[in-house]
Amino acid sequence: MQIEMKLDSNARQMERVEQKMDAILALFRGDEGQVGAIEDRCAHRRMKLSCGRVVGGRLVCPYHGWAYAIDGKGESPAN
Question: Which of 3, 13, 50, 71 has its CA 20 to 30 A from that of 56?
């Protein structure tokens, strides 16, 4: 399996990536520069996470504000 990745060295840049297995990923960097690669769909309403922004090392969905860590664990904004 090959993945084409483009990730800016600036810690806040994210890109959409298409894998040979038709999975689309959102890439982002955490606060300490670690790379997160998670499915490009919010678990809440399926919004594209790649349209969101990185806040506090977490990728935040632009629709309802769910936040995802680099390991893919999501958290509701109500938490």
Answer: 3
What letter does residue 20 receive in the DSSP assignment? T
Per DSSP, the three-state class of 49 is helix
| Amino acid at residue number 62 | P
By CB atoms closer than 10 A (0-12, 13-18, 19+), residue 24 is middle
Instruction: For residues 60 and 77, give the distance between their C-alpha atoms in angstroms, rounded to a whole number.
Output: 9
Q: Which of 11 and 55 is assigned the larger pLDDT?
A: 55
The order of strands in the sheet holding 53-55 is 53-55, 58-60, 67-68, 74-75
- In DSSP terms, which residues pair with 3 in a beta bridge? 19
Render pLDDT for 10-44 as a digit per residue (tens, 0 to 9): 545 555 555 455 678 899 999 999 999 999 999 99
